């Protein structure tokens, strides 16, 4: 039986607790929040589970095996560090840390202490992303041309970061998980209008072999959009995460290039064809993710969404912020 | 009665001829195309109208008052110049010219000769753009925050230009028409996969007062998208040009910022409210545009989509291409 | 403090319990289910609340003020009757009873005992229906022409009733609530394919003054549809309950009829105009309904969705079944 | 070379003429319309083609081989009869005639004179219907359960018939073409609100083997809908004719029925699975239809959409009207 302590009971924390409580082999033995009203909500919903106001008590409690850090990003480093130092495995909300140095330090600490560290890239466990990964692994799309994601809404403003740090970690972690290669350089542009942080931003990531990725994030959109296009040599894919039943559509459409002899020019012709929408497993990604983390801890196995995966995202976020500040300057990752 | 000669009878030329033939006060007195099969199509569809294979004959024909140049962009300069030199008014397909120098030369020539020069920015005459302009002029949206357009499809590849020169002139001409201010600088990224020209590209344009614009163009998308978001302080607008009946939606949604006394921080709160979809006039933009050009010629009045409007778009396209080549470097317009 | 006993913890029962537990002034003091696995789920989720296997014990428990009957329709009469006879107020799942005679008996019993009886027509408490009712009351649509609802999906088959008794009670209760007049006669057609009960059916209800209503229900549709059109003399409304944000759309479109002098015929001309999507309150209808029931009991006030409202729906269901059996024969309600 | 005379140049006639003029082996040698403004439009668009005001002259013109009757339904009989009597093949707009007797008379006359008679059921020649027919012929859907079509819009009111005669011929001709069996009986309900003819109506058609069809037609809908659901034992199909690219979707979803031994009841379980959208040929149905008619005439071959196909639709329309007048009474076809 793995015993979890959860720090942070704001928007996402309750989902962590609910899932952990329903998983066989897991138990929640403490929940911590600085905020008195959050503690009231914990008590109402989770009668019998000890409630903490000081995280130090939770991370040092002897009956805790794993600490879940579900707090604002600028607190991740201190909380995760304290937990690791107390010999606890750590599950930490995305983005992993505020900067690359912090991420590297946590990774080293976990390795020294032989503890598991998982970054909460929940999307990787959804039916849609698992199905896309399967299709890419099977070569269904052929050589990839581009990855283009739009993630916009009239969202909750974060007061401690810009829209890139708030929304793009989803896309970056998904891209890193799906694509075999790493981005080489990043260009980001954007603008702030309200509270000093960019509320709209556009990221381009250059990959080897002419692959290009683009991410459009916006806190000021009147409509919610969660759409990703992936173009490949053989087929093209549209993932609309807001669709209830047909999240993924794979198109037989494409283009063929022929070298026309003697004319020194290329002919591009179009293929059109059927569309196919594979059934996507309807599971709660977070539940699968926590189950997988418990399994990794029990089997002493490194999860694929470990500290290194989290670091890679933070590295790209730092590059994007640097490019943003220089209005589109190319920043190598 | 204004007498038109039309050069170019490929994809768009037939629409020009059809509209001119049905306009009171306009007449088509000659159509020219180098391509024998195009000339056959002209003869079949427009019995009785003289057909030319050599544009020089058409632009020097004494009964021609106006020449419409509906040919690939790299031919615009020579054809328009010849027409102006022969004392003909000129209607020229977008983008105006291949570069800024050509555009400036044509503008000067037209002014010297006291001839009208119109660039075919058809979208400015559609019901949707005219309604958006009216809403912006009335201040319905308040101070503008951003303009974000997606124009993607599995399109006809152009062999003489990249996707920016093919698709972005629509967005740039619309933006220039709708926004009161000019873009200050441009960042563009993109990639080519098939024929040496970029087939996917992303443009950011920085405007004064923190306004930002973004254009996503792509020849390799399996789905067709024609969507523009315009965010303002008071309201936000979504224009989906593929919708048959509800092309425009205006949202009461928005954000309010309050300076919280003593705390040195900003509170951003959300407004949500009704959505409203104004009826958009169902007219063929091209017909209105040609009618307006005839009126401008008759009244010796400069059209708003004149050579200067065309030049502004070419200047932005040049800047975008320069930034693209430097992988996102900021280029001042 | 009103003390509730809940009978039935299948699909819908857990929502009743969850809402009651979070309402001020309400308390759940017992939950009953015949099914051992349901009782296990109750114990896991509601530690500390007494669990019953025999409804007789619950309806006679002295600390119970109100009984909620959330069981299959053929059990409603016996359970509600037992509760009323024990002096308990009753909240009963829709459809109210299996036939008109049962409904009348329960209404009489409740009146004799001075107890409140509410039928769970949850939809009447949703933001969408409340907004439609407001618009109709304000005369926004003018004289009504028709009400046309489609409620289809690949749904859970009920084993004890046909698709009309399963899905149409929603539409019938909404119609009765929204429209000022009662249906005069009903025509129903349909077909069974799998288990002897109709799985697809179509109901027409004739109302006074040429109003007509139509309901399309289907358990065998591959796609889920929840759309209602309401046509009026002044405006027309579309309610798509599956839309996240724009559930209601009101169209200025319509037709005008003019008597053309001397020609003895009618000219019908079309109006087209703006569309408007009012914001709809995002609340859980069931929560509002239970709150309202508690208030009705405390204030000794008859709810609008009382036994008579439930009876009216049952009367229409009986008429529909009778017409269905006679393949479309007109049945007066 | 087949020489066509076309009677009627209102809404649909111009499409007939345009297509005939572009078909090899066909020629339009005369166009007739009583209306002077229609004749003006003919002259403007079809310079050189003789224009008639009196149909008698056209149907007796010696150079005419085929007469196309594109006029209101109540004129079809007289015009088609006159054409046949003059030895012309006849193409007649749907619905074929105003009643069954007229249809039978025309069929007999054509047979006596050995002339071809085609009823313009254009939809049968569209890519969508041809693909659906192919799928049904291949048994892709399995045994059919139901056919449910919605065809509503704010349409042009017909002054000489109700909404059933205006819109349902499309659905009836498609159903008759797709389904192997004939409808046995019809139930129709509806209501008139404006000009004395029903503007909203619902038709149920009972077929052998528990197949059921339903058609919802409405001239007073604020939104346009053209959606047909076809449910089968193996798969289910949705045809949305307003979709540009994905008109057909075939769902692997379905239900399985098992007889549970000893329990005397049926278990219905759900299958869910992939969705597949086959590419639909993008052709103008009318062009294919006219080409096919020319081929039938030349090969002396009876078209599948002949007078008998037209009669079958008229018979169903008559049955629907009779049921409508009796408010849903079952009428055998």
Polypeptide structure, described:
The structure is a homotetramer of 333-residue chains. Chain A is α/β, with parallel strands linked by helices. Chain A has two domains: 2-115, 3-Layer(aba) Sandwich (Rossmann fold); 124-282 and 315-332, Dihydrodipicolinate Reductase, domain 2. In chain A, 34% of the residues lie in helices and 30% in strands. The first copy, chain A, is built from nine helices and 17 strands. In chain A, the strands form three sheets. A nine-stranded mixed beta sheet of chain A has the order 16-13-12-11-7-10-9-8-17. In chain A, strands 3-2-1-4-5-6 form a six-stranded parallel beta sheet, with helices on both faces. In chain A, strand 2 (26-32), helix 2 and strand 3 (51-52) form a beta-alpha-beta unit. In chain A, helix 1 (13-22) crosses helix 8 (285-299), helix 5 (100-113) runs antiparallel to helix 9 and helix 7 packs across helix 9 (307-325). Chains in contact: A-B, A-C, A-D, B-C, B-D, C-D. The A-C interface holds A 47-48, 223-224, 242, 244-245 and C 47-48, 223-224, 242, 244-245.
Quickly describe the structure.
The structure is a homotetramer of 333-residue chains. Chain A has 333 residues and is of the alpha/beta class.
From the structure above, extract its key features.
homotetramer, alpha/beta, nine-stranded mixed β-sheet, six-stranded parallel β-sheet, Rossmann fold, Dihydrodipicolinate Reductase, domain 2, 9 helices, 333 residues, 2 domains
Helices and strands in order, then pairings?
The structure is a homotetramer of 333-residue chains.
Chain A: E1 2-7, H1 13-22, E2 26-32, H2 36-45, E3 51-52, H3 55-60, E4 66-69, H4 73-85, E5 89-93, H5 100-113, E6 117-120, H6 127-137, E7 144-154, H7 163-178, E8 185-191, E9 200-206, E10 212-218, E11 220-232, E12 236-240, E13 248-251, E14 254-260, E15 265-271, E16 275-277, H8 285-299, H9 307-325, E17 331-332
Helix pairs in contact in A: 1-8, 4-5, 5-9, 7-9
């Amino acid at each position: 039986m793995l015993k979890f302590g959860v720090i942070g009971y704001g928007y996402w924390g309750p989902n962590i607790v609910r899932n952990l409580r329903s998983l066989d082999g897991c138990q929640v033995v403490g929940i911590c929040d600085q905020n008195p009203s959050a503690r009231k909500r914990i008590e109402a919903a989770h009668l019998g589970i000890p409630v903490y106001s000081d995280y130090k008590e939770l991370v040092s409690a002897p009956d805790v095996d794993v600490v879940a850090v579900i707090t604002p990003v600028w607190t991740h480093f201190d909380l995760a560090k304290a937990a690791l130092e107390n010999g606890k495995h750590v599950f930490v909300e995305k983005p992993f840390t505020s900067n690359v140095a912090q991420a590297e330090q946590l990774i080293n600490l976990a390795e020294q202490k032989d503890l598991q560290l998982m970054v909460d890239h929940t999307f990787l466990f959804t039916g849609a992303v698992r199905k896309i990964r399967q299709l890419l692994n099977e070569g269904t799309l052929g050589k990839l041309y581009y990855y283009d994601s739009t993630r916009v809404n009239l969202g909750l403003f974060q007061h401690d970061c810009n829209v890139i740090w708030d929304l793009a970690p989803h896309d970056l972690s998904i891209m890193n998980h799906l694509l075999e290669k790493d981005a080489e350089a990043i260009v980001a542009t954007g603008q702030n209008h309200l509270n000093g942080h960019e509320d709209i931003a556009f990221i381009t990531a250059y990959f080897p072999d002419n692959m290009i990725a683009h991410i459009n994030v916006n806190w000021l959109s009147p409509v919610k959009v969660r759409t990703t296009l992936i173009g490949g040599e053989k087929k093209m894919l549209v993932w609309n995460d807001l669709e209830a039943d047909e999240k993924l559509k794979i198109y037989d459409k494409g283009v063929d290039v022929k070298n026309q002899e003697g004319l020194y020019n290329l002919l591009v012709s179009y293929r059109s064809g059927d569309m196919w929408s594979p059934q996507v497993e309807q599971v709660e990604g977070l539940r699968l993710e926590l189950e997988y983390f418990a399994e990794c801890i029990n089997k002493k196995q490194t999860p694929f969404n470990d500290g290194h995966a989290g670091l890679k995202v933070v590295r790209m976020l730092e590059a994007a912020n640097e490019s943003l500040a220089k209005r589109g300057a190319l920043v190598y990752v």
